[in-house]
Amino acid sequence: MDIPVADGTIRGYLATPQREVSGEPPWPGVVIVHDAVGLSQDAKNITDRFATAGYLALSPDMYSRGGLVRCVKSVFKELAAGKGRAFDDLDAARSLLAARSDCTGRVGIVGFCMGGGFALVAASRGFDASAPYYGQLPKDLSVLDGACPVVASFGKKDFSLRGAAAKLERELSARGVPHDVKEYPGVGHSFANQFHGPVNVLLKIAGMSYDREASEDAWRRVLAFFAEHLGREAA
């Protein structure tokens, strides 16, 4: 689907709950922010899974304006700065969901890797709950002031984010933000993402691979947390 933004439209993938499973609308919304790979089949599968759990789920393509090669550098630059068109795109995705007649108006945000960083920064920007997976902590931690409730998941073997879970726990506690931060001891980066082909091979070489047990535990935690803060029964 197309998502209206300030300079036109960007692409997105929308998944809608089935009434037979999730009951009649309205449903809470969730914006899913993909990792650095882009709006892959894995990202779409995750979006579909949120819809199956009863959420109106939308994954915007953060590389809509030129693809991964042309956009990845600028998107990461905006993430580091905590501002820019990428954040405007996420706000547009949130606004689109919240305005729909089949949405309750309460919208969460979920992000993986690069998307996890966006989910953390965006936690104080109009969303009702945030679920970052192995997201880079913002350099300016004041962006967490006024953050919505946060459920975060990290891998202890993720050496690029060593100490991030404990630091985020302290920062959220100091601000009185409701949270659930967990570091899984036996896994590394990307433990909740399932890739195939060359990307999967490269990730495994780098020590970043899917772990079913940790991924499913994180999924249960996220659904329970969202049920509490977005008003949807955990499935």
TrEMBL record:
<dbReference type="InterPro" id="IPR002925">
    <property type="entry name" value="Dienelactn_hydro"/>
</dbReference>
<dbReference type="InterPro" id="IPR029058">
    <property type="entry name" value="AB_hydrolase_fold"/>
</dbReference>
<protein>
    <submittedName>
        <fullName>Dienelactone hydrolase family protein</fullName>
    </submittedName>
</protein>
<keyword id="KW-0378">Hydrolase</keyword>
<dbReference type="GO" id="GO:0016787">
    <property type="term" value="F:hydrolase activity"/>
</dbReference>
<dbReference type="Pfam" id="PF01738">
    <property type="entry name" value="DLH"/>
</dbReference>
<feature type="domain" description="Dienelactone hydrolase">
    <location>
        <begin position="10"/>
        <end position="229"/>
    </location>
</feature>
<dbReference type="InterPro" id="IPR051049">
    <property type="entry name" value="Dienelactone_hydrolase-like"/>
</dbReference>
